[in-house]
Amino acid sequence: MTMTLMKGNEALALAAIRGGCTHFFGYPITPQNEIPEFLARELPKIGGVFIQAESEIGAVNMLYGAAAVGCRVMTSSSSPGLALMQEGISLLAAAEMPCVIVNVMRGGPGIGGIQPSQADYFQMTRGGGNGDYRVPALAPATVQESVSMMVQAFEMADCYRTPVFIVSDGMLGQMMEPVEFDNIELKEPPEKEWKLTGHGNVRKPKTIKTLMLDPARLEARNFELQEKFQKIAAAECSWEEYLIDDAVLVFTAYGSTARIARNAVDQLREEGFAAGLIRPRTLWPFPDKPFQQLASRCQTVLCVEMSCGQMVDDVRLAVNGKLPVAFYGRCGGMIPSPEELVAKAKNIMKGGRQ
Amino acid sequence: MAGIQGIPHIAVDRCKGCGLCVSVCPQSVLAISDGAVNVKGYQPAIVAEPERCIGCTSCALICPDVVISVERIPVKKEVKS
Amino acid sequence: MSVVFSRTKGLTEAETHYCPGCTHGIAHRLVGEALEELDLLGNTIGCSAVGCSILSYNYINVDMIECLHGRAPAVATGIKRVRPDSIVFTYQGDGDLASIGTAEIVHAAHRGENITVVFVNNAIYGMTGGQMAPTTLAGQKVTTAPAGRNPVINGMPLKVSEMLAQIPGAAYVERVSLHSPKEIRKAKRAIKKGLTCQVEKRGFSLIEVLSTCPTGWGLSPVDAVAWLEANMVPYYPLGVLKAPEGGKNV
């Protein structure tokens, strides 16, 4: 096993190549630039293609074209860039085009800032695009997990014919950690019999389209997509549990915030407070199960985000009124410290205001 | 003298009766049907004066619905002095 | 006896949804004939664009993909960069290409993407009911400029081909018209030239096709072609704006 010290963004980019990605289309935006820069250098070496698009709108539509002819393709961007792509993401989901889209989140709204944030939870799980659609969203918390999730994202994309999000943030993208690539085992990608190749004068022409002017057909098509989303939701929920069996207070957080929450759990445990952590690894589908199965000992769920409270909506839906759900958030590029979380947790456990 | 006789064929039921073919025919071979409508409800173009056709294909070239095909046959024409 | 004109294999048997006299049908036929005559039908992927011609995939006998409004050149880029030996074309109207899709078309030309663009300019938004396009002529009455396009408010109509021809990556740019059989023959030659340019990997090619919208213009089909010749051709002069030799050799 060879460990390499790598930045989160660069590890994502290398993992994409290991995951079979041959084409990248993207537009520069901080804090994700290491990804396109790495791929601009490395993709041509494997016979792949890197194109710097004229905009995120251009990039997402290039993704659509490349996915339609069957290659493993990705783009990466950061929050406002993702906002610009949303029409295209709705199209990718509707046309069922497999691809991977990385969001290295920064502070918003508007142009916002360039420091780490998780204020795109809504954008990643609810979408800003039109119509009824869902996009699987994977949220790594370590550089190593960025690697495994990137490979998983390509496989999920092909398996379900869907775009897949990697939801990272400026902290995870910029931090360096030892990482290894040796244990990547790629599954044989499925045959893409739907892809466009030219009919070769041997078959009828194929069309990839989403326009359906007949309401009954469009409704039927929507129901068909919903069935697929339900299948994904049933099979792909993923989360990590940390010391929740006897926990009186359970933190929940994803991505880099989950690392801080885990530190807070350790500090609280040292001081004799029974705290635990549920870390969603998939944001959509959201893992309801661990929240529904919390032991009766648990008195509060404390959701921590680098936002003003977005994932907390899903936590409340999962808990479904059975437990109080408290929230602690920092935003705009401010990062919560373990001490802040410990203080908040103690306050709650001592019956303070939630 | 050998000449050319054109034979235009109009897929009448695909015609939308726009009249572009009629407007470009140099021999006034074609006309818009006077009254009769096709399955679409349009008054289609018809071959009104078939013997005048020289097979130039202008009608087919401008037909937006590609409903016209054209054949040519050699014919002997009397030479008039 | 010889058949001198028959329906090309480049078109499906489907009847088009276009209004009577709309010259989209002619442009579709020319694309189909050009692809058939160059023996490219089996190896072509077309990109349809939002507007009346979005359904062109029902009529042109090749694999096709439907694109978001204005984005066909970006989609074509994605396809071509994965399959450089496929023939890739976009078929876009003037609302799609010259308004919402200016960034995509300019940068496809700028990168010298080896694709062929069929740009149908009928000086109006047809599908949405006759609104003003960037290409609408000064004084031309449209539903969103009921008194006629006022250059003081709306600017003068955009000459897309002239704009694109000066981009180094554009190899071949020509403007043609569909107002007479003679011009239609020339238009087909231009489309074949554009596709040949792509086969020879010379870079970006665009054929602007002046076209009619009898319904949107409020004219009979016959009056519409006359109006095109009398009004559009003087403002949008026909001819080659950039010859293939000027393009980059890929």
UniProtKB/TrEMBL annotation, chain A:
<dbReference type="GO" id="GO:0016491">
    <property type="term" value="F:oxidoreductase activity"/>
</dbReference>
<keyword id="KW-0560">Oxidoreductase</keyword>
<feature type="domain" description="Pyruvate:ferredoxin oxidoreductase core">
    <location>
        <begin position="249"/>
        <end position="340"/>
    </location>
</feature>
<dbReference type="InterPro" id="IPR033412">
    <property type="entry name" value="PFOR_II"/>
</dbReference>
<dbReference type="Pfam" id="PF01855">
    <property type="entry name" value="POR_N"/>
</dbReference>
<dbReference type="InterPro" id="IPR029061">
    <property type="entry name" value="THDP-binding"/>
</dbReference>
<dbReference type="InterPro" id="IPR009014">
    <property type="entry name" value="Transketo_C/PFOR_II"/>
</dbReference>
<dbReference type="InterPro" id="IPR002880">
    <property type="entry name" value="Pyrv_Fd/Flavodoxin_OxRdtase_N"/>
</dbReference>
<dbReference type="InterPro" id="IPR052368">
    <property type="entry name" value="2-oxoacid_oxidoreductase"/>
</dbReference>
<protein>
    <submittedName>
        <fullName>2-oxoglutarate ferredoxin oxidoreductase subunit alpha</fullName>
    </submittedName>
</protein>
<feature type="domain" description="Pyruvate flavodoxin/ferredoxin oxidoreductase pyrimidine binding">
    <location>
        <begin position="15"/>
        <end position="230"/>
    </location>
</feature>
<dbReference type="Pfam" id="PF17147">
    <property type="entry name" value="PFOR_II"/>
</dbReference>
From TrEMBL, chain B:
<dbReference type="InterPro" id="IPR017900">
    <property type="entry name" value="4Fe4S_Fe_S_CS"/>
</dbReference>
<dbReference type="InterPro" id="IPR050572">
    <property type="entry name" value="Fe-S_Ferredoxin"/>
</dbReference>
<protein>
    <submittedName>
        <fullName>2-oxoglutarate ferredoxin oxidoreductase subunit delta</fullName>
    </submittedName>
</protein>
<keyword id="KW-0408">Iron</keyword>
<keyword id="KW-0004">4Fe-4S</keyword>
<dbReference type="InterPro" id="IPR017896">
    <property type="entry name" value="4Fe4S_Fe-S-bd"/>
</dbReference>
<dbReference type="Pfam" id="PF12838">
    <property type="entry name" value="Fer4_7"/>
</dbReference>
<dbReference type="GO" id="GO:0051539">
    <property type="term" value="F:4 iron, 4 sulfur cluster binding"/>
</dbReference>
<feature type="domain" description="4Fe-4S ferredoxin-type">
    <location>
        <begin position="6"/>
        <end position="35"/>
    </location>
</feature>
<keyword id="KW-0411">Iron-sulfur</keyword>
<feature type="domain" description="4Fe-4S ferredoxin-type">
    <location>
        <begin position="44"/>
        <end position="73"/>
    </location>
</feature>
<keyword id="KW-0479">Metal-binding</keyword>
<dbReference type="GO" id="GO:0046872">
    <property type="term" value="F:metal ion binding"/>
</dbReference>
Automatic annotation (TrEMBL), chain C:
<dbReference type="Pfam" id="PF02775">
    <property type="entry name" value="TPP_enzyme_C"/>
</dbReference>
<keyword id="KW-0560">Oxidoreductase</keyword>
<dbReference type="InterPro" id="IPR051457">
    <property type="entry name" value="2-oxoacid:Fd_oxidoreductase"/>
</dbReference>
<dbReference type="GO" id="GO:0044281">
    <property type="term" value="P:small molecule metabolic process"/>
</dbReference>
<protein>
    <submittedName>
        <fullName>2-oxoglutarate ferredoxin oxidoreductase subunit beta</fullName>
    </submittedName>
</protein>
<dbReference type="GO" id="GO:0045333">
    <property type="term" value="P:cellular respiration"/>
</dbReference>
<feature type="domain" description="Thiamine pyrophosphate enzyme TPP-binding">
    <location>
        <begin position="56"/>
        <end position="209"/>
    </location>
</feature>
<dbReference type="GO" id="GO:0016625">
    <property type="term" value="F:oxidoreductase activity, acting on the aldehyde or oxo group of donors, iron-sulfur protein as acceptor"/>
</dbReference>
<dbReference type="InterPro" id="IPR011766">
    <property type="entry name" value="TPP_enzyme_TPP-bd"/>
</dbReference>
<dbReference type="GO" id="GO:0030976">
    <property type="term" value="F:thiamine pyrophosphate binding"/>
</dbReference>
<dbReference type="InterPro" id="IPR029061">
    <property type="entry name" value="THDP-binding"/>
</dbReference>
